[in-house]
Design brief:
Elements lengths: L1 H43 L6 H28 L6 H33 L10 H17 L2 H5 L18 H31 L3 H6 L2 H33 L7 H25 L1 H15 L13 E3 L2 E3 L1 H12 L1 H5 L1
Helix pairs in contact: 1-2, 1-9, 2-3, 2-4, 2-9, 3-4, 3-6, 3-8, 6-8, 8-9
GO molecular function, one term: G protein-coupled receptor activity
Membrane topology: Multi-pass membrane protein
Pfam family, one: 7TM_GPCR_Srsx
Length: about 325
């Protein structure tokens, strides 16, 4: 009886593992394709060469880096490869670094929204140069913040466990929780609270001159939706870290959710970026028609019809009649 029960558990674990691998692979493919599509569109389309889309480009590049690191960690985990503490510590640091740089890329997008909505009088803040400064600042902060996970020995390699800081190191865990979750939420609340307050309390005439304020408020809401999806993908990882240090055997369902949820969240975030960003969406429609128009069969072109003096006239007939008048051969006929 015990053998049959353990066999059933092993079989269900294998089925869940295969399902999670399929979902993880599909989400990685979708997210990577969407990121590359946005990057290509921004690079080749001159109308998208703006300071705001520069930040979107940096977010897509950061997301690709996160997907690469997550894929490497998942491959090592799925294949049960042997490792030591130091390589595990490096993978943990790269994971925290890639996670932070993606989250904080949305924060610098919120700062950019603040520039365009509230501090628009300072034209220098709207330039590409200052947005490049924001990107450099994001890279520097993301590089420095997770350094304790690399310097200390709080990440230890344990088979069939993720290379993350153990929950028994409470100070280090609280520090990571602060920089990954608490600080981004506080900053987003403050930044978008200022944007919303400025939009609501502007006068009617001033709001007509600055109709873009409403657009920025909608864009702020969209970015909040994207960040919420991304943070939602990290909740299973937090729960897994807590449960894995409280019990000896972590439930297989929780483990599979921990591996799959972030990749699915990333795929949804990138798709929502295309859906909610109007200029990228419009350019994508135009490019889609241009790229795939050659695959469509040629159709008969219908001539436009105009109405002049209550008579319906076809421009093609007008052109033929004019040719007949000017052509002497047609006149003799």
């Amino acid at each position: 009886m015990t053998t049959n029960t353990s066999g059933m558990q092993l079989n269900s674990m294998n089925i869940g593992l295969y399902v999670s691998m399929i979902m993880y692979t599909l989400s990685i493919i979708i997210a990577t394709t969407a990121c590359l599509l946005i990057i290509i569109l921004i690079i080749i389309t001159r109308n998208l060469h703006s300071s705001t889309n520069l930040l979107v480009l940096s977010t897509c590049v950061s997301t690709l880096f996160y997907l690469i690191i997550s894929t490497i960690n998942a491959f090592i985990f799925y294949t049960a490869s042997s490792s030591t503490d130091w390589p595990c510590r490096i993978r943990g640091y790269l994971y925290y670094f890639s996670l932070i740089i993606v989250i904080y890329s949305y924060i610098i997008q919120a700062i950019s929204r603040l520039f365009w909505t509230v501090l628009y009088k300072y034209r220098c803040l709207l330039s590409i140069k200052y947005h490049l400064y924001l990107i450099i600042f994001n890279i520097s902060i993301s590089f420095l913040l997770p350094l304790p996970s690399l310097i200390t020995k709080d990440i230890v390699y344990v088979p069939f466990k993720m290379c993350l800081v153990s929950m028994k190191y409470k100070i280090h865990t609280f520090y990571l929780l602060t920089i990954v979750i608490i600080i981004p939420i506080v900053m987003f609340t403050i930044l978008y609270g200022i944007i919303y307050y400025h939009t609501i309390h502007s006068t009617a005439n001033f709001r007509q001159l600055l109709h873009g304020a409403k657009r920025d408020a909608r864009l702020a809401r969209n970015i909040l939706i994207l960040l919420s999806i991304f943070l939602f993908g990290g909740i299973p990882s937090v729960i897994y870290s807590i449960v894995s240090n409280q019990v000896e055997s972590t439930p297989s369902v929780l483990f599979l959710m921990t591996i799959t949820a972030p990749s699915i969240a990333i795929a949804i975030v990138i798709i929502m970026t295309i859906v909610l960003t109007r200029d990228i969406q419009q350019v994508l429609k135009v490019r889609w028609i241009e790229w795939f128009s050659c695959c469509k069969s040629s159709t008969t072109r219908v001539q436009p019809i105009t109405n002049t003096n209550n008579r319906i006239i076809n421009p093609t007939n007008i052109q033929k009649s004019q040719q007949n008048k000017t052509n002497p051969l047609n006149t003799h006929r």
